[in-house]
Amino acid sequence: MPEPTDIPSFAASQLNLLDAELKAELSETNALLSSHTPTALARAGLAILNLNVSSIRTGLGGKTVVELGLDPAVVTKGDKADIPEHGIRVGDIVALQDQPAGSAKKTEKRELAVKGVEGVVLRVKREVVEILLNKEDADVPSTGKLWLVKLANDVTYKRMNQTMSRMQKLEDHEYTPFMRVLFGQDSPSPLPPDLNDPSNPLHNLEWNDPSLNDSQKEAIRFALASREISLIHGPPGTGKTHTLIELILQMLKQKLRLLVCGPSNISVDNIVERLAAHKVSMIRLGHPARLLPSVLNHSLDVLTKTSDAAALVRDVRKEMDDKQSSIRKTRNARERRQVYADLKELRKEYREREKGCVNNLVHGSKVVLATLHGAGGFHLRGQEFDVVIVDEASQALEAQCWVPLLWVKASKLVLAGDHLQLPPTIKSLNSKHAKPAQQSKQDAIKSTGEEDNKAGSSVKRAAASTTLETTLFDRLLELHGPSIKRMLTTQYRMHETIMRFPSNELYESKLIAADFVKDRLLKDLPYQIEDTDDTREAVVFFDTQGGDFGEKTEDEEMKKGGKKVSLGDSKCNQAEAALVAMHVNKLVKAGVKAEDIAVVTPYNAQVRRISPMHDIVPA
Ligand SMILES: Nc1ncnc2c1ncn2[C@@H]1O[C@H](COP(=O)(O)OP(=O)(O)OP(=O)(O)O)[C@@H](O)[C@H]1O
Predict the structure, then answer these.
(1) Among the four 69, 374, 498, 540, which has the fewest Cβ within 10 Å?
(2) ipTM for the complex?
(3) Which atom of ligand 1 is least distant from the CA of 234?
(4) Is 525 part of a structural domain of the chain?
(5) CB distance 271 to 260 below 8 Å
(6) In ligand 1, which atom is closest to the CA atom of 213?
């Protein structure tokens, strides 16, 4: 079994790796912004030109929300004022700035991040875009044309850095027993010896979902019985989330308080939606702009408006909105200054009332859901939870998982994921071999020695030589072995033949196909489909070797407008595209509905090749 990990050197190593990763991300975005004009960026979907402020209001936290629409001067009379197609999405970080006039527009580039005001995109509609400004006293350019450009997002890095810095500084006596287990300095508490015995009370659970299969039930019993950590290993389609929902319901029955997280908003919303079906009372933390509409009723933002305590907050909000709109009508500078001063006072008052309301709501909630990143916000700092549950844990960087684990008080962790699928995307290429990692390994070795001497400890601790690709799930498995994990083995998504390859190659042939999918074929779809060579097979392979199947590299944005905007290269293969189109045509001819067919390719250039060959709508 590997040696225990030294915590400060682990944190130091992570800080170095995160730094390299952030640099890679920033340099990619900055290179793009500094070498293109606003017009070119707009053409590439990274900017919107010719905007005007259409209204200003107060959002959560007393921050300013600016609504932008197209400048009427650029809209042809009688046409709709639709904003031209763009790639700016809710949650993106953007800068809003004055648009350089006339020909300057073509030459203006550089230092985009420094100019204008920064904010987060709150809403994107056909005719308007809403931005929540980051700085509360930001002065919005209120006259003339504005343009909006997407910036690099370093917010998640800041929080991971903050978390790892805190971990690095913790003294030996501050490590909780739970934390020691997570670094292999202690072993997980043994499971009850009779866990597999039908006499154990966990074998008499009342299931909310009677359709759970045996491997799911066993994983739930195991997670309930574990004291510090349990991993639920769910290969594709085996019902990881399904199992977590039942686990959450069982834990709530035991009156436990839970913090449920995932690496992305969609992973968290997926759980909120499924828990809502069981009428669980819960709070979803997070920027309302990034939440699915269906979960908004559980969001803190909405609850602070609809709960009883919310009336107090509403009064101040109304007053602030009135002031905001009065600024736009005030031409006189002295009056404007006075309104800004009043707004500042109101904002203070608003924040205090809102804090009271939020505290009541969050404290009183038995289940709080947030992204890993969001769980590090001030709402949860120092709060006690019995269990932290992380879904899609193999998609999260380890530093991300530590955000909830270090900022709240918790003594048990359940991770659900699949370490055999792709790890989170890392941009600092070859980070396994990159200098920072090497460097940090040396730092780690040095600091291990110092630490041990200082503590007079005889424990030989391993230097932290992890990479960013090593997830917490991976590391814990390596540290404590398979006894901390239970695997879900029945999959509900694939025909047995499709399943066979991943099962044999990755999952020790342990996967079983559920009855209702194991021999499901296209010809059996519940509408009229011809029985052909293509519809009676679950998988068809095309051998493209030997033919003229040359791969081409194409500039990603060549086709955006007349000008060339380079956003990197993408690959395509004309002959393979033709083959795909031919196969799709055959399926459609046999009666398969086009909307039931998905074509997947990792390259944009290939999507562009294939789409015109058929009525395939690119996603
Ligand atoms: N015991 C069960 N009986 C019937 N259907 C089930 C069962 N468990 C899961 N499913 C179904 O299997 C599918 C996959 O479930 P779920 O989305 O929870 O899996 P997952 O492992 O989280 O998926 P992914 O592979 O996307 O991570 C869903 O359609 C779900 O309803």
Answers:
(1) 540
(2) 0.96
(3) 21
(4) yes
(5) yes
(6) 1
